Amino acid sequence: MHFLPAFSSLLLCTTFSAAAPFWGIFEQTSLTPYLTATISSSIKSALKKADVIPDVLAHDFKPTFSLLLSYPSTHDHVFLGNVLPRSNVSSKPVFEIHSLSPHPTPTQKNATYTLVLTDPDATSRAEPVKAQMCHWIVTGLKLQPKDNSNAYILDARTTSEEHSSTLSELISYFAPAPPPKTGYHRYIFVLLVPKDSQDDGKGLQKPADRPHWGYGEEGAGVKEWADDNGLKAVGANFFYAQNEKQ
């Protein structure tokens, strides 16, 4: 498995603090068209190598946002296919979501975003009889302008406090808990936005169940739920985790 794709090398070219090892690229670097295209291409390449495309995302998925997530209690970061200890991801992560465009459109600025977490490897990647498994759905997310740049971000560390009245967890965070002897599971965060720019996201329907996202069909999940709710994927990130008993 390719845990450190080309995107990692690109991001590591910039010096970052220990608390935020790669988030600083959006503060220290001007997002030129070449750089945004390179980041988008590298994200998609990592997703394809791990078969996130097509297991969770469609072949025509194009990343237009980057998802930068970390688990505050352990300072572990989600890094396009790195391995995280199961015990370190027991509580919900904090995150920044950056537009890969240096000048987001009015539609992007005003849209309501939804972040989901899914496991396409339940109960195992070899026998995904319960896949996909829904682990988290949080919506009501809005972009906020970043003070020291022309970037627009969605930052859960501030949004959750300043806009708590607009946030809604359709599915509370269920910590990854891969069963013993089932190998590595992929845990995939997907950022979704309404296809209709006038949709405020308030009418989203909660999945009927966590296994198969309520569809009752092996492999069903984010794509089906997004289509039924008028959403499209615009960003993704993922990590691997396994049970200690193998």
From TrEMBL:
Keywords in alphabetical order: Signal
Ranges annotated as biased composition (Basic and acidic residues): 198-212
InterPro entries assigned: PEBP, PEBP-like_sf, PEBP_euk
Region of interest called Disordered, as start-end residue ranges on this chain: 198-219
Signal peptide region: 1-19
Keyword Signal: yes
Domain of life assignment: Eukaryota
GO MF annotation list: peptidase inhibitor activity; phospholipid binding
BP GO terms, sorted: regulation of proteolysis; regulation of Ras protein signal transduction
Listed Pfam families: PBP (PF01161)
UniProt feature coiled coil, ranges: none
UniProt-listed CDD domains: PEBP_euk
PANTHER family tied to this protein: CARBOXYPEPTIDASE Y INHIBITOR (PTHR11362:SF148), PHOSPHATIDYLETHANOLAMINE-BINDING PROTEIN (PTHR11362)
Protein name in the entry: PEBP-like protein
Species name: Heterodermia speciosa
